[in-house]
Design brief:
Two copies of one chain form a homodimer.
Chain A (H helix, E strand, L loop, with lengths): L6 E5 L4 H12 L3 E8 L6 H12 L4 E6 L33 H16 L3 E3 L15 H14 L1 H5 L6 E3 L7 H10 L24 H13 L9
Parallel strand pairs in A: 1-2, 1-4, 2-3, 4-5
Helix pairs in contact in A: 1-6, 6-7
Chain lengths: 228, 228
């Protein structure tokens, strides 16, 4: 990687999808600045995972922004009074955090503008998480359109170059696991569980655990997750 | 105001425009939840002003979110190493904070979703601040389009109802002052200065001070600003 590599901002939760997304951005030759959020989620294990993943995959930096979305409530991921479901549900799951991806992408846009980055990577996936409104392709396209009008480049030019990259949006979990495996992602570093222990040990029962385990099984690859 | 009044989220900086915007939303009959940000700006005088304005105009609540945009740098408003200009400049001023309105509106969207609010008010103004990309009508329209795809309502319905209200976007500063005056806004409570003292005393020389003073003069109304 030379110093002239283009810069990308990569949203990194510490889970399987965003780790794969970072590996894809690195493989495309970007100097990647990873961005994570302490937003009031139930556990910090995913932030520790994000730091491990950023280092392992050679991010140029890893920044954790603190935004108290928990103060707003309205999600099982930020409100201890709402239980994380341990069986499949219909409709949008209670683990949906209102406007979370919009807040995260907005912050990534601010960092991208300061760093002169044209590319923001986000590991959203519309197949497994079809219940989340802000994981859908039409949402990502609309955010990109807005972002192209939002910054200094929109007025001073060249403008229009900003891209929201969601390379996993149409992939199955098995495809994601296979792709990351081929790129050398060490999934033992990642934490997907919605209610992991502080050490990152997974419950094995929540939506995120079930999708992840099914993904490894369907990909025919060993699942390095530590379950309790 | 009955308890059945529709809820609006109103972005409130503590300055003249957002105070007027809150007064307009109140006059339209909304129960207004005011939202301010401690984002690393140079002074807290505007947050104290926002609290005074929210109380004076009968907001149902006033919330201050802490988001460290200063960590990103890139603006005279968040980086003490970049001086606030005291004479007119060309192009986008260095007081522009990268993607600030996108971050603020994203957080307002999260709160709106939790509160069941369809309306988000923002006091942007394209006339005086034509240099800021995120104060332009096309930007606001694009954010609204994105927001209508971003939340639970976009999937579960009714959806499409979310509105970004920017009632001052095409107004001159004099028109804003006249409108607020007619609605009973006490502008002595507001702070516009980019480099106000902790007590809210204005410099009288920065862009924000000059635009504000010219607005009162053009409106033919007394300027209650405290200058040092």
């Amino acid at each position: 990687m030379t110093t002239s590599a283009p810069v990308a901002i990569v949203l990194l939760s510490g889970g399987l999808d965003s780790a794969t997304c970072l590996a894809i951005a690195r493989a495309e030759g970007y100097a990647c600045e990873a961005l994570s959020f302490a937003y009031g989620q139930r556990h910090d294990a995913e932030l520790a995972a994000a730091a491990r993943v950023a280092a392992a995959l050679g991010a140029t930096g890893h920044r954790v922004m603190r935004i108290d979305l928990a103060a707003f409530g309205g999600s099982a991921l930020t409100d201890p009074a709402i239980a994380v479901p341990e069986a499949p549900t219909t409709g949008i799951p209670v683990t949906y955090v209102p406007a979370r991806n919009t807040v995260f992408l907005a912050c990534a846009l601010a960092l991208a503008e300061v760093r002169g980055a044209n590319d923001i990577f986000i590991g959203v996936n519309a197949v497994d998480y079809s219940g989340y409104p802000d994981c859908r392709p039409e949402y990502i396209a609309a955010f990109e359109g807005m972002a192209r009008l939002a910054t200094r480049a929109a007025v001073e030019g060249p403008g229009g170059g900003l891209r929201i990259r969601a390379p996993l949006i149409a992939a199955s979990k098995a495809e994601i696991v296979r792709r990351g495996h081929a790129l050398g992602v060490d999934y033992s570093l990642t934490v997907s569980c919605y209610q992991a222990s502080p050490e990152g040990v997974a419950c094995g029962r929540c939506d995120a655990c079930r999708l992840r385990a099914a993904g490894f099984a369907a990909a025919g690859l060993p699942d390095p997750t530590r379950y309790r």
